[in-house]
8-oxo-dGTP diphosphatase
Amino acid sequence: MTTSTNSEAGNKLICTVDVVLLSLSEGQLRVLLLKREREPFAGAWALPGGYVHIGEDQGCEDAAQRVLRQKAGLESPYLEQLASFSGPARDPRGWSVSVAYFALVPHPEEALPGQQWLPVDRLPQLPFDHGSIVATAVERVRSKSQYSSLPVHLCPEPFTISQLHAVYETLLGEPINTVSFRRKLDELAILEPVVGEKRTEGAHRPAQLYRVRAEFRQRLRLVGRGLNR
Amino acid sequence: MTTSTNSEAGNKLICTVDVVLLSLSEGQLRVLLLKREREPFAGAWALPGGYVHIGEDQGCEDAAQRVLRQKAGLESPYLEQLASFSGPARDPRGWSVSVAYFALVPHPEEALPGQQWLPVDRLPQLPFDHGSIVATAVERVRSKSQYSSLPVHLCPEPFTISQLHAVYETLLGEPINTVSFRRKLDELAILEPVVGEKRTEGAHRPAQLYRVRAEFRQRLRLVGRGLNR
DNA sequence: ACAATAGTGTCTGTCAGACAATATACA
DNA sequence: TGTATATTGTCTGACAGACACTATTGT
């Protein structure tokens, strides 16, 4: 067994980024998977990802934004570093480090060819360790939803309080008191009302529309004592 | 400008780990710095860190444990992944990714030669981006202290509730209600009393000694609604 | 008018913080 | 006995959850 030295040829280390792009549709949290065009795992559905381009990227977050732009056509969704995954076996090409990010977007109209939005609770086996990466991201998002404004990034603007309420309930998997929810949103002061109103299907009072205030478009807001659940 | 390709020679990517080892002494949160023996920044005080050894390490966490063992002589403190730091400029040797970890230990008797424990609030300029890494770690630890059992790893066992209380107050920087604190510890059920008792300096009732229950030596315990402050 | 959802006002139980009482050591 | 800190018991204010009431639309 060779005593490993710093970073010599022959035993190259691979460095990639992977992005867990999440969205909400049909009452389910879904993740974007792409059909891989190259080996390894060509033809399999996997997370969007790619090599860090050291001539081009100013950091791994840059690389993640580039991957999102090039492979999912997205410009600047809410993006946050998740964790790094590493080891000799996770990628058949060799010892690898993947810096994983997660991003949240309102659900797009339709998936492009080679794209698929699958419910995170019913995923097939994924290549590499993408299964664990998705699981980690989902856990993080559900956890942060308990005490932050993170989920607003899943709502297409403008949205009603009821819509946002439903989003939180889906993520947390249990009912949230509507009165408390409104109170919290008030305290947080991340939303601003939009002039127009909105009417739902049926015959009832229309709901005020809101959008996220610019200051919180990229930054989160943490709540003092959670949503209290 | 070259269109960057995957990971060809000439433009090698560097992959390292860095560890923010934290401890509490004289009422201050302190970080371990080591005098660098090699370039770059030979002679400067910096975080313990090193290359990932792909022939030896089973992952970056392994590498971090190895660094702690070899450079600080520690066996298995509480260790958690912090974040990854990357970019073309953070390391003069080239485009680099560092997977950073933080670890908590009771303050050791004395620093070995070439080691130094400096207060995190009064650090000099550090090489690389070690200043940001430490800042991120401190923020994470302070934040987690609000709602988890993380700080127990800073107390030399066995310890009294009063000691632990002081640790929390130091980390959070404000007084914590003693009654609430005891109640929370009770709920958490992470501590178990040790047979012997302890007497402090003066003349007063001795305090019960506790240690962390084995189940929580490596895992954290989260509190429902924080320590409520 | 009726149905249905949006939004608000008010009461109640729970829990963190304050305060006070008790416990137990050494001097 | 006196002093100092540990530990426990009890009261109180703040706030989340429940409930009920008002608002506003289409049918």
